[in-house]
Amino acid sequence: MSRILLINIKKLLQIRSLDTSYVSGKEMDELPFIESAYLLINNDIIEEFGEMKNSPKNLEKFRVIDCKEKMVLPSWCDSHSHIVFSGNRSNEFIDRIKGLSYNEIANNGGGILNSVDILRNTSKEDLLKQSTIRVKEVINQGTGAIEIKSGYGLNMESEKKMLEVISEIKKQNNITVKATFLGAHAFPREFTDNKREYIDLIVNKMMPQYNEARLIDFVDVFCEKGYFDIKQSERVLSKAKELGIRAKIHVNQFNSFGGIKLALKYEALSVDHLEVLTNEDLTNLKNGSTIPVALPTCSYFLGINYAPARKIIDSGLPLAIASDYNPGSSPSGNMNFVVSTACIKMKLTSEEAINAATINGAYAMGISDKVGSITKGKIANLIITKDINSINEIPYSFGSGKISEVILAGKIIN
Ligand code: NIG
Ligand code: FE
């Protein structure tokens, strides 16, 4: 049966009209809801919802799920991930525990280039297999839409392999996927002494070809000292603009040196990381239309500063939060833990964290007209919680999770 009816929902959370594409500042502390509600799904779409007293009466027409004592909210929208990778870097994890920093490990020949070596030697089939296991894992943890970056290939063939795997993931699963080209993630070893040539390769060959093959939705750059400086980043962003592709940028993870200004100049969709944010950066962001994205579990895992999320929201800006799922700085894509960490470490309220991980995450992927809220006509991507009395129990139960079922594009997953 293609129509599913959820009844007796204790609280139906995050109800928005279609014209709310994101929420900012004080609005982030509000999560509109209906108490004692129903919700009707038709195929993959939210058809109708409202108070229980108005629920359809002829139940035999539907597959009915009784949500007594449970709450329902839109699935998590994870706007920043590197979920396609091969192997892992658990050896570096131990090096860090013993005292080395993320950058020291990278400078000793580890880090991103370590994952590049492994990925180049992994077949497309194997890469898809490894990545699909992770995708299924995050689906079960309530993620309904995800952005996935390339950036562990760093040559023509292996970046293409990554992008094709992302495209396969899109086809084979009900999760909504956006693909980001991150050829400018690090300089590959073979270009250490000829950085200009690597940027030439990115802008003259990779970007046009992958764009032509319709493999990319966004372009990203790791704009950071020791990675891509302002000039190098600008070459990539300006090519993206020429091709009509929006940018999403890694900036201010370790240093603030003009990356935000650059992102704003190119009207990037999002600026991500922001662990080091100056007052000038904040002022610049207030004058732009780029959404800040914080990655709390990256800070948790690396033991670095958290992005000043309170300051960002209190200054009236919107904020999204994402997992940054990757083998080096956040080897987990569990958005429940991201939401908990945003509350516990960044001092967001439950409402703010849920807004940041749903509607604002959707906006940071350019899909807030399709996912991220309970809205008629949006994709039926839903989380059904376990029995809970307050939404605060969602971030509060860190590490265990309060999800009982997940619905993705109208299909019951678990
Ligand atoms: O977002 N900062 C750059 N890229 C990733 C880490 C990638 C890696 O270490 O493999 C990040 O943290
Ligand atoms: Fe990242």
Describe this structure in words.
By secondary structure, the protein is an alpha/beta fold. Helix content is 35%, strand content 22%. The strands form two sheets. Strands 1, 2, 3, 4, 5, 14, 15 and 16 form an eight-stranded mixed beta sheet that branches. Strands 6-7-8-9-10-11-12-13 form an eight-stranded parallel beta sheet. Helix 4 crosses helix 5. The mean pLDDT is 97. Bound molecules: N-(iminomethyl)-L-glutamic acid and fe (iii) ion. N-(iminomethyl)-L-glutamic acid binds next to helix 3.
Entry summary:
With 414 residues, the chain is α/β, with parallel strands linked by helices. Helices cover 35% and strands 22% of the residues.
